[in-house]
Fold:
Amino acid sequence: MGAAVTIIDHPLVQHKLTLMRRQETSTAKFRSLVHEISMLLAYEVTRELPLKQEAIITPMGPTQSPVVAGKKMVIVSIMRAGQGILEGMLQLIPSARVGHIGLYRDPKTHIAIEYYFKLPQDIAEREVLVVDPMLATGNTAVAAVHRLREATLGSIKFVCLLAAPEGIAHFQSEHPDVPIYTAAVDERLDEHGYIIPGLGDAGDRLFGTK
Ligand code: URA
Structure:
């Protein structure tokens, strides 16, 4: 058994996801939807962050008020499609540090091939959110988290927009300690490793490359 899969079923998330799925949605609209939905995902994923009371002074006088306590965050974007989620989340968590892992899927074998890897030096002292819009075969996400585990034994969460059952099973078998957060779990993969019904190629739709 792997860690939990949390489906973020908030009505605004579901509505925006439907707009993203529609083939007639323009690149500009798709991009702004990714940013909006990513803020909502970040809101849910950070729900359990611990708080501590801090002494502050309002214009009316002193009080104790809660602030986020404990470890700071790092958002690790799996390039290139992770960039859209990263930018949205940074609007909500502007002080987060950022890591990048460049992986592409070999179109024939679907194996993940690394071309870039850069993490903050203090990643072991931080909570890690790994972001990639599509958990399809799971090969890319699995490879990314294996690389991250070389740098940190701490908390890692995987956040995507859409997941396929095959990708979830693969990811959980390799990383049973890493919870998955997604806006939806779709039916299946097609023979090219694309999610059905899905939303197409997230990177192409985000950057207008097709
Ligand atoms: N990557 C995508 O962008 N879309 C899919 O459906 C699967 C992988």
Observations:
- The two ends are 38 Å apart (CA to CA).
- Residues 27-45 form the longest helix (19 residues).
- The chain has a mean pLDDT of 95.
